[in-house]
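Retro notes, structure queue

What went well: the backlog is down to a handful. What didn't: a couple of records were mislabeled last round, so from now on we paste the full input next to the output in the thread. Example, using Kinesin motor domain-containing protein from Genlisea aurea:
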Amino acid sequence: DIAGTLATEVAEDSGQVSKLRSALESVDHKRRKILQQMKNDASILNLEDGAMPIRNPSTAAEDARLASLIGLDGILKQAKDMIRESSSVNVLSRRKKRSMLASIDELSERMPSLLDLDHPCARRHIDEARNHVQSTAEEDDDRAVVDSSKPSRGGGGDGETDVSQWNVLQFNTGSVSPFIVKCGANSRGELVIRADARVQEPKGGGGGEIVRVVPRPGVLENASLEEIKAIFSQLPEALSLLAVARTADGTRARYSRLYRTLAMKVPALRDLVDELEKGGVLRDVK
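Corresponding output:
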């Protein structure tokens, strides 16, 4: 019985979890299809005298494992998102760090819903996420937000802004002349933009183009409007023109849309966008 074998296989990582889940769902779909065909075909059900009756095999074990794999998949994805988010900043504010650790505790509280054979995989990834968050530098809330605009550990540098291929977008806000933003990905899978330091500055005025790694939307999560503006002040003016609204929540929503627009223009970052969307990092509503 293929389903019975799949129900007892141990998953070591998210890739194996997805494969097992997909395989079990496929077997379940085929089983249901066959049973439906049997119900629709009267000749199959009209047994001769003395024949053994057709019985539906129990699927309790497979159903329980599938439910466990679905729960495990959710835990692993959230743990991975937390690792990715903490890796995208130099420091975490104390409030943000406490919030992330509390979320990790919630993942642990979901473990009883899993089957025993899925516990080791869940525990390993939860512990990895916890260790990663705990090892991230911590600062006072009013300082960490500004520092976290540096998207990765190790500070800035030419290496982080090296992009092999630029993709060009033109924006027109109606309040200024249309302007160009070039976007790409560096070797670390981060969004990098290249644009004029000041959009409204005349050509030759000394502003020129600057290249910056763009912070992920999660960096702005607990920031006030003034703190967000401080982060944007280190980036090309185009981002402020396109993202800043009258409130912090409005700015976060607009920045999420802008980040998605820029990142989706870069083929290498489309998987990242999917992961951020699944993790709830990209928020498009105020």
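Agreed that this is the format going forward. Reviewer comment attached to the example: Residues 85 and 265 are 21 Å apart (CA to CA).
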